[in-house]
Design brief:
The protein is 33% helix and 19% strand. It has 15 helices and 14 strands. The longest helix has 20 residues.
């Protein structure tokens, strides 16, 4: 029976693809002499939102040339192609990412697709000999994150995760102050995202697939569903098939610095409570209001999020607060300050941000690609996996309604309901790669 190329690409298993790509492409090292005399050629997959912002940051580097763009929405692809052409940059366009990965004109891949595609595309890009800049959260399940780390290691790739706050100086300065001990014993860390601009998503009927959109490829390994505009482009974040709501969208940023500040790894337990308290009848599946508590030996980390309101702790709509016996340090994307506990310490007035985190993150990635020094990455794949898994644990606690405990040795919560959510279910002939 004959199959079209598109049908074959969509239905073939990922394992076969990874194996084929690994054998078909030379490693970065075999092309080192050639590449040292040319610019690093970048191709971007998923260019409607942050993928486009990431690409714009990367092409500002003098050693980078964008050669290829890919998006399942031809309308987006044509728009971005023209925007680059207006900048004097000529690119080749693809609707299917695997064709971009086959290109010898691509050394580095930017992955800015919805979360449910990050694992497959990152693994296949690594197998194809490409270095990767992948958007956060790294994966849409614990197993995906672990698989991606294994792939980057096996294929010896440079992989940076888009947690660009790790490249901002004022975040580093804030953590250094936390580590100085001046706050005294820190008993609680709060991290939060109150996002007033994220309004209710009204229920909409299913529609025909928009012209120019390869919807089957957009769905990829997720369940086949009729096209609904609520699940497409930006709003995919609020549906479990594709993402994890604000817990993984903003949690990976804020909780990342909570962990860095406390030098923390795996919590003893996780519990969460929340729901659709603000918009109970809208189209979203993920909670618009959530409180999650991560228990450690002698402190807790607490996550809060709320859609539709900006009135977060310390009059900030996002941030991290390290609450110590002597004072509290509060940091967010605007800067950091220390609020003293009475007269126990001196206040530190607001130390405003001084740089562009995304721009610095892009430079950090390209310099690591050039040097082949993974240790120089500000957000290596291991760090991205750790915080994505940490955030996934919060969602698992919420979805099960249980206090859960992670068994590192077994890779299990030792709870049937929670363990069912460790691995994302794949459909349509796709499989999670086995590395």
């Amino acid at each position: 029976m004959h199959h079209s190329r598109r049908k074959f690409i969509q239905q073939s298993t990922v394992l076969a693809t990874v194996t084929g790509l690994a054998s078909a492409f030379p490693s970065f090292h075999t092309l080192a002499s050639e590449r040292s005399q040319t610019k690093i050629k970048v191709g971007a997959i998923g260019i409607n939102g942050m993928g486009w912002a990431d690409l714009q940051a990367l092409i500002k580097h003098p050693d980078v040339l964008c050669t290829s763009l890919c998006d399942v929405d031809k309308n987006v692809l044509d728009k971005r192609t023209k925007e680059l052409a207006d900048q004097g940059i000529k690119t080749k366009g693809y609707l299917n990412y695997r064709e971009l990965l086959e290109s010898k004109d691509v050394d580095v891949v930017v992955i800015g697709t919805p979360d449910h595609w990050h694992c497959l595309q990152t693994v296949e890009a690594c197998a194809a000999g490409k270095d990767v800049y992948v958007e956060k959260p790294l994966g849409n399940s614990i197993t995906e994150c672990q698989t991606m780390v294994s792939a980057a290691k096996q294929y010896d790739r440079i992989v940076q995760v888009g947690q660009w706050q790790r490249s901002q100086q004022h975040f580093k300065d804030a953590v250094a102050f936390v580590h100085s001990g001046k706050l005294g014993k820190i008993r609680l860390v709060k991290a939060w995202a109150y996002q007033g601009w994220m309004k209710s998503i009204p229920v909409k009927p299913d529609t025909e697939v928009p012209a120019g959109v390869d919807y089957k490829l957009w769905l990829g390994p997720t369940k086949n569903r009729p096209f609904n505009p609520n699940r497409f482009h930006f709003e995919f974040r609020w549906f479990w098939d594709y993402a994890g709501g604000l817990m993984t969208d903003w949690g990976v940023h804020m909780l990342d610095y909570a962990l860095i500040g406390m030098k923390a790894t795996t919590p003893k337990s996780v519990m969460a409570a929340g729901g659709k308290f603000a918009y109970p009848d809208d189209a979203a599946e993920t909670p618009d209001t959530l409180t999650t508590v991560y228990e450690f030996d002698d402190f807790n980390i607490q996550w809060e999020h709320a859609n539709g309101i900006d009135g977060g702790p310390y009059s900030r709509n996002h941030g991290v607060a390290f609450i110590g016996n002597n004072g509290t340090l509060v940091v967010n994307r605007d800067g950091w300050e220390v609020i003293p506990e009475g007269d126990r310490m001196e206040a530190v007035p607001l130390q405003k941000k001084v740089d562009d985190g995304l721009a610095l993150h892009a430079v950090n990635f390209i310099e690591a690609v050039k040097s082949r020094d993974k240790s120089s990455l500000n957000a290596p794949i291991e760090a991205g996996a750790h915080i994505a898994i940490f955030s996934q644990m919060g969602n698992i606690a919420y979805r099960t309604g249980k206090k859960i405990h992670w068994d590192e040795a077994k890779g299990s919560f030792n709870d049937a309901d929670a363990d069912q959510l460790i691995t994302a279910n794949y459909y349509n002939g796709y499989e999670i790669p086995k590395i």
